[in-house]
UniProtKB/TrEMBL annotation, chain A:
Signal peptide: 1-24
Keywords: Signal
Keyword hit for Signal: yes
Protein species of origin: Bosea caraganae
Recorded superkingdom: Bacteria
Protein known as: Extracellular solute-binding protein
Length: 292, 233
């Protein structure tokens, strides 16, 4: 056997080894549920908002749902606009978001058969302790926003078509401020999630609109405090929809419906009410409230 | 920022051996190592072939592959996302938001690195040993196994570069994996999540663990190549 032959053999062996390793990895790497054989994980995919995820709500309620039904819920957490699009593309079985008008549009387009209200909490205007706009402790969100704009106090906008971003734009309208025309260097659209927006507001000493749940669970507050809260117009309603199988035949409609029904059942509603941080309830169930 | 808290968080993660944390580390390693293995199987022979083959437009191909080493992960992620989405051409496979999708995205990121570096290494070897290999009848594609074997230590470094690229990136795995807790959450996407939750000590603690893992894998590779070099003479 010549030296060259030996090297050829070694190289072949090396490749066979690599191939073997790759093959050994492949079954482990394959998704357990695409080949839905009996005994494998039963799961649904839910596209939801950063607020439900970052606030820790899912960490509390999903294990309860799994214990009852055996269904694992895989949550993709995105802004509301993106989460709805994930449902439109058929990449999620259930959509759980907070922008009522957009949810109703989703149903109208035929992507879901029904939208159900689940729970609410409220938005709070967060700002630096120094309070450059002089609005700390006030209750009128419209008047507060007008002051922020007049004094050109730094303001962080999500700028990502999320539910919170949509609510923020609606509040500027309520305040009579044409934000598209009035925005300047003080108005900073960061195009990121709620947590990132709070991190930025902390670093910039800026005001920012946040859902209360994310704020309560947020750990990097620095000098940030609640500036404005308690205005009725800061109401934040969450709704849930399962994706219409007529649009996407592959969606797991039955298991998705089980999740929707559980969320809006007395049991699911109690699980939501039971979730607290430092004794404070984050979300208030209201599935039975007509028109919510 | 309290730096003590960062090390405390990293230490608590490493000694606590929380199952959820171990699952994240396990998934990160599984995805990244699988991607590098597949990229090696594709990239080593192709890179060597590119080093030896002569064809019109070869220079263009080489420049393009070299440029692809800088492919932004988020772009690779977006392309894989659009392909694998239920509304995309490969939608029926149902692979979006799975570890497999993450492996696919990382293979796309690592293959150009393996091909480009292999091409350079093998071309240099060929220039050096051309006469010898020709004299024993090895020419053209038949010389590839020998050249790959002779360059194995340099090629191992190329694979480590690919591993570094894959293990460090977050843009692609976040888009195609979805950062699903307990299923597609890796070290890097967990760091992103903890940052957005404002838990910066935990985020940096996870970062320290990731760096330690990368260091360990490079140390193992270095040790193995040293031992290998001794036996190879």
């Amino acid at each position: 056997m010549t030296a060259i032959d030996r090297r050829l053999l070694l190289a072949a062996g090396f490749y066979a080894g690599l191939a073997g390793l790759a093959l050994a990895q492949a079954p482990a790497a394959a998704p357990p549920a695409t080949t839905a054989a009996p005994g494998e994980t039963r799961f649904i995919t839910v596209s939801s908002t950063t607020s439900t995820q970052d606030s820790g709500l899912f960490g509390h309620i999903l294990p309860l749902f799994k214990a009852k039904t055996g269904i694992e819920v895989r949550v993709i957490s995105q802004g509301t606009g993106q989460a709805l699009d994930t449902g439109r593309r058929g990449d999620a079985d259930v959509v759980f978001v907070h922008a009522r008008a957009q949810e109703l549009k989703f149903v109208e387009e035929g992507f879901s058969l029904e939208r159900k209200p689940v729970m609410y909490n409220d938005f709070v205007l967060i700002g630096p302790k120094g309070d450059p706009a002089g609005i700390a402790g006030t209750k009128d969100i419209a008047a507060a926003l007008v002051k922020v704009q007049e004094r050109a106090a730094p303001f962080v906008s999500r700028g990502d078509k999320s539910g919170t971003h949509i609510a923020e734009l609606a509040l500027w309208k309520v305040a009579g401020v044409d934000i598209e025309a009035k925005k300047g260097p003080w108005y900073r659209e960061i195009g990121q999630g709620m947590g990132a927006a709070l991190n930025s507001a902390n670093a910039m000493g800026a005001y920012v609109l946040s859902d209360r749940g994310t704020w309560l669970s947020f750990k990097n507050r620095g000098d940030l405090v609640i500036s404005v809260e308690g205005d009725k117009r800061l109401f934040n309603q969450y709704g849930v929809m399962s994706v219409n199988p007529a649009k996407h035949p592959h969606v797991k409609f039955d298991d998705g419906k089980l999740f929707v029904d559980w969320l809006t059942s007395p049991e699911g509603q109690k699980a939501i009410a039971d979730y607290k941080i430092d004794g404070q309830q984050l979300f208030f169930p209201n599935a039975q409230q007509a028109g919510a | 920022m309290d730096f003590g808290a960062i090390f405390q968080a990293a230490f608590a993660l490493m000694v606590g051996l929380d199952p959820a944390f171990l699952a994240i580390v396990g998934l990160s390693l599984r995805v990244t190592l699988t991607a590098v293995l597949i990229a090696a199987l594709i990239g080593l022979p192709l890179g060597a072939a590119l080093a030896l083959a002569r064809f019109p437009g070869r220079a263009v191909v080489i420049v393009c592959l070299n440029a692809l080493m800088g492919l932004p992960p988020v772009v690779a992620g977006l392309v894989v996302f659009l392909l694998l989405s239920r509304s995309g051409p490969l939608g029926p496979l149902g692979l979006l938001f799975t570890p497999t999708a993450m492996i696919v995205a990382q293979v796309i990121l690592v293959v150009p690195i393996v091909i480009a570096l292999t091409r350079q290494i093998v071309e240099d070897l060929w220039a050096e040993y051309r006469d010898h290999l020709r004299s024993v009848g090895l020419e053209g594609l038949r010389a590839i196994p020998t050249l790959l074997w002779d360059g194995r230590f340099a090629l191992a470094t190329a694979l480590l570069a690919g591993f570094g690229r894959a293990s460090a990136e977050v843009g692609a795995v976040l888009i195609v994996g979805g950062n699903i807790a307990g299923y597609t959450r890796t070290m890097t996407t967990a760091i992103t999540l903890e940052t957005s939750k404002g838990d910066l000590p935990l985020a940096l603690g996870l970062g320290l663990v990731l760096i330690a893992l990368t260091l360990a894998i490079n140390a193992i590779a270095f040790g193995a190549s040293r031992i290998g070099a001794r036996y190879a003479g």
